[in-house]
Every structure is written in structure tokens, then in C-alpha cells.
Amino acid sequence: MSRPVKHSLTLRGHRTSVSLEDAFxxxxxEIAAEKGRPVNELAAEIDEARGTESGLASAIRLYVLSHYxxx
Length: 71
Known about the structure:
Elements: E1 5-11, E2 14-20, H1 22-35, H2 39-50, H3 56-69
Helix pairs in contact: 1-3, 2-3
């Protein structure tokens, strides 16, 4: 398992940094491509849905996990 790598995303016009392991970044990009959507747009959707109880990185990891589990 790799260490988390920080990438910048733009969510609704605001820049933010998210740290994820390489495998999660790759999977997240694959999901965005499958859906025909930019990574920033998909991240913004996840950000809006996550509420305040979890961070964006955790929410993206759970989204990726849920996608590959078929939920």
C-alpha cells in the first residue's frame, strides 16, 4: 500500500487538497471516466453529499469502495 498522495481539486470554484493513496486516485479517475464526468465534478458531488461527519478523502474512499462493491 502506498502512502497518501496530495492532489488539488477545484470544488465549485474553490481549490482544496485531498490526500489519497495511488490506488484510490486511480480508481476514482476510472469511475469518473466511466461516468463521463470530470474528477472535480464528481468530487464536488461527493463533497455535497458527505455532510460534516466525515472528511472529503474518507468520503471519496467510501464512494470508490461502494462503486466496486456494486452498491
